[in-house]
Amino acid sequence: MNIVMDAFGGDNAPLEVIKGAIDAKRDFGVDITLVGDEQRIKSCAKENALDISGLKIRHAATVIDVCEEPTEVIKGKKDCSMAVGMKMLADGQGDAFLSAGSTGALVVGATMIVKRIKGIKRPALATILPTASDPVMLLDSGANADCRPEMLTQFAMMGSIYMNKIMEVTSPRVALVNIGTEESKGRELELETYSRLKEAPVNFIGNIEARHVPLGEADVVVTDGFTGNIMLKLYEGMGKFFTTELKDMLTSGFKNKLAALMIMPSVKDFKKKVDYTEYGGAPLLGAAKPVIKAHGSSNAKAFYNAVRQAKAFTETGVIDETTKALAQMKESQKIKEQ
Amino acid sequence: MNIVMDAFGGDNAPLEVIKGAIDAKRDFGVDITLVGDEQRIKSCAKENALDISGLKIRHAATVIDVCEEPTEVIKGKKDCSMAVGMKMLADGQGDAFLSAGSTGALVVGATMIVKRIKGIKRPALATILPTASDPVMLLDSGANADCRPEMLTQFAMMGSIYMNKIMEVTSPRVALVNIGTEESKGRELELETYSRLKEAPVNFIGNIEARHVPLGEADVVVTDGFTGNIMLKLYEGMGKFFTTELKDMLTSGFKNKLAALMIMPSVKDFKKKVDYTEYGGAPLLGAAKPVIKAHGSSNAKAFYNAVRQAKAFTETGVIDETTKALAQMKESQKIKEQ
After folding, report:
1. Which of A65, A83, B141, B323 could in theory staple to B127 by disulfide, Cβ–Cβ 3.0 to 4.6 A?
2. Per residue in A114-164, pLDDT tens?
3. Closest by Cα among B105, B145, B157 to B228
């Protein structure tokens, strides 16, 4: 298995990508190809005394920036590390692609270069978030600002299969994000999606209010990419707010510092619990081959975990399962229409 | 000044409403009228040995439940405490109305009974949230699931005036909630609202990503009522998630319990900082007279603070200021069109 990694995506590229790749190659028994400016990758490794002899490198002359138009990845910047990496995946030279670069460009590239699973309307960014109990998958967390009900229904199905196959959740509880739990709540989008989800081959538990998401009351929560992105970022912001407050609390004055020493193991457990890097990256569900978006601020550990996730994504047949489920849905739709 | 309170709104009615009213009457020098079943109010006070001789009571036979259709407040349940209270406000028998009951019914009642400020398209629920620095006003946090750009522009203006007059923020920083900071980000709603806000008489600082909201990077953040409600509830849920984790951390094992004792004052400061009850309730901006939605789980302290807020809302002339600003906007619009 060959995992293709964008060496120049994210805030800490290429150093942290290289570090994560070395560790992952050692521990997971996969091949890894780093895509990007070969000279820069080599000199970064040399400067940091990192042995990259076990990694492959595929040269790509440029990098697409988060500020650039996402469509540049298939237009002016076909030679950027992200485009070259996705082309490798599409051509069968790799089994999964992983990047911490521009989300917009990754979505465009996954759609146009890697292509979608037949029948899937749009790929969705699926982020796994920590909760008070088990992690929850939020999708779409930012690929499509505007969504239609059939898209949300497909997201529910794809998220459900992923959580079952990769996170080993039996019969994942799927919920629709809404402003109330009653079936009559929400906009046209939620009303129509609700009735579709009742019929879909998922364990639909109804609407969920956003307050219940961090308490772990569902395994998969679906919404449009605008709302999902707002939720994802608020999750992040609230996490930062609280951990900063906690840190201030534990470092203000002698007595507090002493107390901090005493509860340090618990604080570390807590930090680990709310640490997104534990879950790897966000799969772009609906792409015809495994594409994973790592967080922009990923460090070596996050890249390491994302490679593990990419391996599982490839091995567990999530995409085959999705293709099969789609065919079944279409079939049952036909029978109903007859 | 007479503050009219729905004695039967919220999870802790009527006891906590009565307690909050007694304390507020004593401290703020206002008259308070409790609206609801007179017999039940009197017996509740008696059972709890509360002296309500200083409060007025206006009898209302029924209560509108959160599960009922909001429009019932102007149809089948005209005799409910919420409808009777708002009628009093509309008729000039009170200066502000306060309820912890159904948000939907309150919005309908504010629109149809109290009426809107002339020119205001829709009233918005404006919630004040704690942040790492100063509190932020989020609106619309749930009155209108679907919004148009002109509505969001009015929300920005009303929120700005409120934060200036009541919270004493000089030139409040107004931001539009979006999935990126660039002007080109978002749905049609955000694109059109952005260009309107640039021209509006507010200190518009551009788009804000949700992650920056809890860090206090704006004073007023505007969005549609669907997104706003999701944000509000996620804020709540994340707060619950973290405080539960913190509590678990501070009560697991002898060493941690000892540490907890040492940092207790800081924990209390933290809890106070993230306690919504400190800010009173959410004003329904755009109604022709002060209407405040208290949180459904409000306790006596929250009702007490909501009365203080209702008093300030009435005294500081937020509504007059809004009416003036609207007239000016209309005027400048006319000049531009000529």
Report:
1. B141
2. 999 999 999 999 999 999 999 999 999 999 999 999 999 999 999 999 999
3. B145
Rounded distance, CA A35 to CA A59, Å?
Answer: 6
- State whether A179 and B209 contact (CB < 8 Å): no
The 3-state DSSP class for residue B331 equals helix
> How high is the pLDDT of residue A266?
81
**Which chain A residues are closer than 8 Å to B271 by Cβ?**
none
pLDDT score for B268: 82
CB contact under 8 A, B249 and A267: yes
Q: Given CB atoms, is B258 within the 8 Å cutoff of chain A? A: yes
Closest CA to A178 of B145, B5, B293: B145
Nearest to B233 among A132, A211, A233 (CB): A211
Per-residue confidence band for A113, with pLDDT thresholds at 50, 70 and 90: very high
Task: Say if CB B246 and CB B158 are below 8 A apart.
Answer: no
**Is residue B184 packed enough to be buried (19+ CB in 10 Å), middle (13-18) or exposed (0-12)?**
exposed
| Cα–Cα distance for residue pair B144/A265, rounded to 1 Å | 46
Among B67, B211, B252, the residue with its CB nearest the CB of A234 is B211
Token pair listed for B106: 């309150």
Cα separation, A113 vs A74, in Å, equals 8
Contact B248, B267 (CB under 8 A): no
Give the residue on B whose Cα is nearest the Cα of A243.
Answer: B242
Please count the helices (runs of H) and the strands (runs of E) in chain B.
10, 12
The partner residues of B36 in beta bridges, in order of sequence, read: B59
Instruction: Name the pTM for this structure.
Output: 0.93
**Per-residue pLDDT tens digits for A249-270:** 888 888 888 888 888 888 888 7
| Closest chain B CA to residue A257 | B263
Q: Provide the β-strand partners of residue A99.
A: A293
The band of A186, judged by pLDDT with boundaries at 50, 70 and 90, is very high
0.90 surpassed by complex ipTM: yes
Partner residues linked to A152 by β-bridges: none
Window B:179-198, CB contacts with A under 8 Å: 179, 182, 186-187
Contact A277, A300 (CB under 8 A): no
Report CB contact under 8 Å: A242, B242.
yes
**pLDDT score for B92:** 97
Order the strands of the B124-125 sheet from edge to edge.
Answer: B56-59, B31-36, B2-6, B96-99, B291-293, B282-285, B124-125
Spatial separation of the C-alpha atoms in residues B305 and B275, rounded to whole Å:
12
Which residue type is seen at A48? N
CA distance B261 to chain A (A): 9
Question: Each residue of A284-310: b (16+ CB within 10 Å) or e?
Answer: bbbbbbbbbbbbeebbbebbbbbbebb
